[in-house]
Amino acid sequence: MKRTLSLFALSMLTAGQGFCGYLEDGNAQLAKGDFDEAVVNFNKAIAQDQNDCRAYVFRGYIRQTKGNLDDALADYNKAIEINPRYQLAYNNRGNVKSSKHDPAGALADFTMAIQLKPDYAEAYFNRGLTKANTGDTDGAIIDYSKAIELNPGFAGAYYSRAIMKKKKGGLDGAILDLNRSIAIKGNDAFVYNSRARIKLAKGDFAGSLEDFSEAIKLNPNFAPLYNDRAWCEFLTKDFDNAIKDGTHGIQLDPKDGYGYSTRGWARQEKGDMAGALTDCKMAVELIGTNSPASLGDQGMVDFINGDFKGAITLWEKTVQHDASEKEVIATWIEKAKARQNISK
């Protein structure tokens, strides 16, 4: 989930307060997305008054957005040196530190921003993201909940809290949060995709398929969406459409092994052993032989090649790694055992 950088809040600080023309012009250009011209004006503003902390934060935001993290960090440091109580600078510096893989530093900055502005919803949200990334699921939920309390229309906070609830096994609560996120901002493909995955885990295949399709409508060029819908179609034994969506995903991203995986399994179900073998081998190659996510495909390769014992061993490991595939894999384990008995 994208971190919030308080651009709107920053713009409100300068609007109509009589700051120098360079700063106001730069801010107007920044609001329009004209970053290069904005930087020119912020540079002029800083040259005119090197103690104007806002100009450094505006320029830091642009540098951060363009990926110049070290320069952005320098600007935020300077802003805080000038005004140690500038909560916006701490929030945005926290985002840079998080991007630079300094979670401890990021947490310290978000916490300082919150101490300076206790109703700072964005800082709670950003601190929640950092906690989530460091494995502090409960702490992340607390921060997302506080962000929602402060800003009930914060769609991203509902989405992020849903992901944490799902991680803890609270599927119903996660769906409620995703419903709220969609009600606030109904054009985010990834929110629909996340809800589709949870519905799939709950066995709501029709609802899952509907959400996957809506996600694809919103973002038709993102391969994993097709791969996810293909898996839903596979589980409902719609193998033709699973092959079709798997193929579409592969066309969009030939290096995404999951499209090959689902298409391979669907082809096997359709009796296309040669195609299934080729796809499953490609899936293993792209996902990685040592990745637990490729164990199922490795097992299918063994199954097609007649190594039923090897397939059973690999599929049992698959279930240990991902219990959500237990039902599908159990069916194939039984098929492998049956073939194994016949071959004896």
Report the CATH superfamily of the domain at 1-117.
Answer: Tetratricopeptide repeat domain
Give the biggest beta sheet: none
Query: Would you list the SSEs in sequence order as H and E?
Result: HHHHHHHHHHHHHHHHHHHH
Q: Write down the overall mean pLDDT.
A: 92
Classify the beta-strand content into a percent band: under 5%
What is the number of beta strands? Answer: 0
Class by helix and strand content? Answer: mainly alpha
CATH class of the domain at 1-117 equals Mainly Alpha
Quaternary organisation of the protein chains: single chain
In DSSP terms (H or I, runs of 4 or more residues), the helix count works out at 20
Helix content, binned percent: over 70%
CATH topology of the domain at 1-117: Serine Threonine Protein Phosphatase 5, Tetratricopeptide repeat
Taking the alpha carbons of the first and last residues, their distance comes to 53 Å
Query: Which regions have little confidence, pLDDT < 50, spanning 5+ residues?
Result: 8-19
Spatial shape: elongated
Rg is: 25 Å
Which second-level CATH architecture of the domain at 1-117 applies?
Answer: Alpha Horseshoe
Note down, in words, how this protein is organized.
77% of the residues lie in helices and 0% in strands. The longest helix has 18 residues, at 326-343. Helix 14 runs antiparallel to helix 15 (239-252) and helix 16 (257-269) packs antiparallel against helix 17. Residues 8-19 have low confidence and may be disordered. It has a domain at 1-117: Serine Threonine Protein Phosphatase 5, Tetratricopeptide repeat (Alpha Horseshoe). The protein is mainly alpha-helical and 344 residues long. The protein has 20 helices and no strands.
